[in-house]
């Protein structure tokens, strides 16, 4: 299983969990499994066209997927996927 | 068998290679790794020293040389006033395993009389030496570094949760000018984390409250108040002349406006943001690392990024993040260490954990890409997304 770290602002959509484990695969598979289990996240993560929203950054093992293969990035079992929205607070 | 001074000097001369000032200068030119070390007393160093030399007094040479010259095979040339003390100091370095050590004969007197380059260090007052003594003891700061801090100008955008701890420590560190952009007044709900302010100043303008706290800690700091909301129309004027900017705002509008102007002006921004138990921190160093728009090309909808007044925040989180920002500011000013440019540090107070993510410059960034730089130079800046209207605006433009 691959671990997806859920940022605080999205935790309400996953019942308060900090981490959700899903089967490994492509990033599209991994995030697809996440939104299937927690449909409230669909609109937060994806555009109507099925692309990642530009205001949500996703990192696989610390690397921004925009500079890897986007949704086609391979995610291994040992990898950690991190979802990172911008924060405003100061 | 007791030895006389003459015996010791003879032994030192037999062991240590000596170079004339001209030879020493040439050696440094030939091999730029060469370090010229002034081993005189601090009071002599302050009167003037060879240009580019480092100061490690003979009294402390055993304990300080490794910080000044970390590798044992670095060519080192020692000098003192006349060429004697440096001979004995060179023996010490040989005994410590330095393999390429020479002493400059004739010392600084001869260096000067031969017309070689020298400079007078910036000298601190006695009161400053006392106040900043713990900085002066660190070779990476020292008198020169402290003098540089005293001449530095740092702009804090926001005198709130992040700006408060940063302002206190930057003032304590002797940053000479601290600008503060804040148009707000102190509210009682600020006091849970904004430690620049006090209960008896509720209702007072934050800039004034900050000035009182900062100057109570360090009267030497020049506090410059900018009592206005930072916008795309005034940002260029406000940030002009500052060396480093600390972003402690709480809106995306301000963060994007600040980013675009700071990139154009070439001023590094130390960025942090907080949400409840978590914080993010990085340094946006124009053209050397990504900028805010590279990291977040588009602002999120408001429900995904509420500020502290809506979502709440554990008071110590901006405290911790603000201090980490102050640390980055000091490193940038002093030119030491590795800045967080290109790295995003995430802090989770509940886990007490830090996570580091790698950031990259966006080659198509509308603010810091080559194309954006060329467009700005041509007077036709590229369009960027505005957080407020979800549409497009041009910094300083009419669109």
What would your notes on this structure say?
- The complex is a heterodimer of chains A (90) and B (399).
- Helices cover 17% and strands 28% of the residues of chain A.
- Chain A has 90 residues and is of the alpha+beta class.
- In chain A, strand 4 and strand 5 (63-64) form a beta hairpin.
- The mean pLDDT of chain A is 93.
- Chain B is elongated.
- Chain B has helices at residues 5-15, 21-30, 42-45, 61-68, 85-95, 107-113, 126-131, 133-136, 142-151, 163-173, 206-217, 235-239, 252-265, 292-295, 308-311, 316-334, 370-377, and strands at 17-19, 35-38, 49-50, 54-55, 76-79, 101-104, 118-119, 153-157, 177-181, 222-226, 244-247, 269-275, 278-284, 343-348, 353-358, 384-385, 392-393.
- In chain B, helix 1 (5-15) crosses helix 5.
- Helices cover 37% and strands 18% of the residues of chain B.
- Chain B is of the alpha/beta class.
- At the A-B interface, strand 4, strand 5 and strand 7 of A face strand 12, strand 13 and strand 15 of B.
């Amino acid at each position: 299983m691959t671990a997806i770290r859920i940022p605080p602002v999205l935790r309400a959509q996953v019942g308060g969990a900090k981490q959700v484990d899903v089967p490994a695969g492509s990033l599209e598979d991994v995030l697809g499994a996440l939104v299937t289990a927690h449909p409230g996240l669909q609109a937060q993560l994806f555009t109507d066209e099925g692309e990642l929203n530009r205001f949500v950054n996703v990192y696989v093992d610390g690397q921004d997927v925009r500079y890897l293969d986007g949704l086609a990035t391979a995610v291994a079992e040992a990898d950690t996927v991190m979802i990172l929205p911008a924060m405003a607070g100061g | 068998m007791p030895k006389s001074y003459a015996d010791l000097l003879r032994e030192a001369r037999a062991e240590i290679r000596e170079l004339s000032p001209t030879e020493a200068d040439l050696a440094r030119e030939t091999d730029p790794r060469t370090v010229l070390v002034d081993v005189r007393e601090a009071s002599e160093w302050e009167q003037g020293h060879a240009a580019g030399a480092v100061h490690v007094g003979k009294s402390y040479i055993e304990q300080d040389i490794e910080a000044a010259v970390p590798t044992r095979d670095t060519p080192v040339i020692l000098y003192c006033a006349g060429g004697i003390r440096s001979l004995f100091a060179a023996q010490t370095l040989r005994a410590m395993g330095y393999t390429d050590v020479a002493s400059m004969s004739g010392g600084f007197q001869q260096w000067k009389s031969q017309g070689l380059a020298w400079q007078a260090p910036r000298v601190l007052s006695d009161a400053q030496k006392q106040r900043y003594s713990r900085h002066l003891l660190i070779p990476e700061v020292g008198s020169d570094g402290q003098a540089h801090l005293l001449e530095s100008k740092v702009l804090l955008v926001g005198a709130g949760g992040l700006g408060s701890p940063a302002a206190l420590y930057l003032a304590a560190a002797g940053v000479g000018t601290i600008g503060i952009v804040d148009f707000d007044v102190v509210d009682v709900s600020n006091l849970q984390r904004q430690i620049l302010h006090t209960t008896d100043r509720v209702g007072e303008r934050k800039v004034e409250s900050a000035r009182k706290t900062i100057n109570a800690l360090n009267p030497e700091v020049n506090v410059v108040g900018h009592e206005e909301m930072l916008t795309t129309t005034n940002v260029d004027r406000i940030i002009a002349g500052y060396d480093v900017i600390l972003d402690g705002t709480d809106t995306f509008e301000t963060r994007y406006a600040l980013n675009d102007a700071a990139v154009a002006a070439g001023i590094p921004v130390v960025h942090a943001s907080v949400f409840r138990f978590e914080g993010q921190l990085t340094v946006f160093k124009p053209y050397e690392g990504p900028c805010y728009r590279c990291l977040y090309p588009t602002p999120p909808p408001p429900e995904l990024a509420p500020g502290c007044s809506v979502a709440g925040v554990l008071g110590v989180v901006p405290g911790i993040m603000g201090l980490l920002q102050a640390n980055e500011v000091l490193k940038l000013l002093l030119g030491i260490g590795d800045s967080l440019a290109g790295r995003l540090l995430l802090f989770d107070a509940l886990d007490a954990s830090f996570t580091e993510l790698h950031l990259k410059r966006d080659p198509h960034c509308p603010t810091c890409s080559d194309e954006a730089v060329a467009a700005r130079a041509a007077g036709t800046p590229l369009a960027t997304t505005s957080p407020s209207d979800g549409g497009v605006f041009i910094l300083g433009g009419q669109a």
